[in-house]
Amino acid sequence: MRWGKPMIRIIGICLAVILTTILIGVRGIYAQSDQRATVMERQALMKSALKSYFPLLAVYNGKSTNLTKAGEAARKLKDDMAKSLALFSEGTAKDQVPGSRAKPEIWSEASDFEAAGNVVISSVDKLIEILASGDVEAFKVQFSLVEQACLGCHEFKPSGGGKFRFGK
């Protein structure tokens, strides 16, 4: 069977459409993979921040007097929080990436979310200063303010929700 030029042109167009569709699909898979990696990194940083919380809580509750360890924990908490806040890119909300618990309000109320993040960072900065001074009573007051700052986005328990996070 001999194919004419119109038939070859139609086959060529069909192949181009099929290849374009495949390439778009592959790019979508890679984009989804990148977003999933972003969510996983963000969650790992938040878990690390939670671990930094416990040495601070121990000083607050009088179960530890190790202000050096608490200072290290506070610096780690600040670092983890700053890094995690930078990872809330659009396209990483709960309905967009499996495993994400980020609410759409993070982006629809972006100025509120940014302000809440800034409050956390600045309150931890103040906590670090107080720890360096050795004033345990001032530390306890500031630690309560750090906890309140965290509650601006979510509840403390890991399964809890909040203004910017869905509960489990």
List the helices and strands and how they pair.
Elements: H1 5-60, H2 67-85, H3 105-108, H4 110-133, H5 136-150
Helix pairs in contact: 1-2, 1-5, 2-4, 4-5
Concise structural overview:
With 168 residues, the chain is mostly helical. It has a single domain, classed as Up-down Bundle (Four Helix Bundle (Hemerythrin (Met), subunit A)), CATH 1.20.120.10.
Which labels suit this protein?
Four Helix Bundle (Hemerythrin (Met), subunit A); 168 residues; mainly alpha
CA-based shape: elongated
The arrangement of helices and strands along the chain is HHHHH
Q: Rg, please?
A: 24 Å
- Domain module count: 1
How far is the first residue's CA from the last residue's CA? 63 Å
Q: Kindly state the number of beta strands.
A: 0
Structural class by SSE content: mainly alpha
* CATH hierarchy, class: Mainly Alpha
Number of helices: 5
| % residues in beta strands | under 5%
The CATH architecture designation is: Up-down Bundle
Q: Which stretches are poorly predicted, pLDDT < 50 over at least 5 residues? A: none
Mean pLDDT: 87
Major β-sheet profile = none
CATH superfamily: Cytochrome c/b562
Annotated CATH topology = Four Helix Bundle (Hemerythrin (Met), subunit A)
Helix content: over 70%
